[in-house]
Amino acid sequence: MRIPRFYDPQPMAEGMHIDLGETATQHALKALRLREGDALSLFNNDGHEYRAEVVATSKTRMQVKILHTQSPERESPLKIEIGQALSRGERMDYAIQKSTEMGCTRISPLFTERCEVKLSHERQDKRQRHWQQIAVSACEQSLRCVVPEVHSPRPLAEWLQDVQADLKLVLHHHSAQPLADFQPPSSVALLIGPEGGLTEAEVELAIAQGFYPVALGPRVMRTETAPVAATALLHYLWGDLGPTQQDSSK
């Protein structure tokens, strides 16, 4: 049986007794019904995994003891930041969830010309917290120990000017340049357009900021599908999904 896994940002070390945070406590008590003596696994974004045991519970509190620490190698050597044009509702949630599962390092939601999502500053903050929690849940499920940072939405032009990476790519279905043409980078910035695609002016702006247009094949993907396919290809070529990495782990 798989040991339940929770994210809790507080400091941890072997032998410590800690009270789990409210979110983890509610899920552990109400959804999983953990009790004294049950085992669980914790991570706090420092790259380690902490095996623990429940030592005390109440209706609103769960105390655990950290038994030992592990340092699993689950982060790819390739760092990927995704600039994801905003899309409606569950599509954006899906893109963030799957991008996290695929190992991206940072996600920046972007306002673009064809973006149909309008958010006030208050709603932007609320959505950012919602998306960050989606990333946390995806890390709990995928066994990652480092949670990618999900930024508040920002204009495309602002992100293009600020983002730093060894290789900058913009998905553009009219491009014929294959990914294998590029020298292996240690970091990639990946721009993905909205449901209606980026305008030609936006693509040209990205190119002017050092981005290379690339296509993932002859078919046009949805905005929420593109980051999954793209990150899989990038990690296969230069990260930890290729045959060399798989062979070395045997």
UniProtKB/TrEMBL annotation:
InterPro entries: Alpha/beta_knot_MTases, PUA-like_sf, RsmE, RsmE_MTase_dom, RsmE_PUA-like, tRNA_m1G_MTases_N. Gene3D superfamilies: 3.40.1280.10, Hypothetical PUA domain-like, domain 1. The keyword Methyltransferase applies. GO terms for biological process: rRNA base methylation. Residues 25-67 form the Ribosomal RNA small subunit methyltransferase E PUA-like domain. SUPFAM superfamilies: alpha/beta knot, PUA domain-like. It is an enzyme of class 2 (transferase). Its EC number is 2.1.1.193. It is found in: Cytoplasm. Keywords: Cytoplasm, Methyltransferase, rRNA processing, S-adenosyl-L-methionine, Transferase. GO terms for molecular function: rRNA (uridine-N3-)-methyltransferase activity. It catalyses: uridine(1498) in 16S rRNA + S-adenosyl-L-methionine = N(3)-methyluridine(1498) in 16S rRNA + S-adenosyl-L-homocysteine + H(+). Its main location: cytoplasm. Residues 75-234 form the Ribosomal RNA small subunit methyltransferase E methyltransferase domain. Belongs to the RNA methyltransferase RsmE family. Specifically methylates the N3 position of the uracil ring of uridine 1498 (m3U1498) in 16S rRNA. Acts on the fully assembled 30S ribosomal subunit. PANTHER family: 16S RRNA (URACIL(1498)-N(3))-METHYLTRANSFERASE, RIBOSOMAL RNA SMALL SUBUNIT METHYLTRANSFERASE E. This is Ribosomal RNA small subunit methyltransferase E.
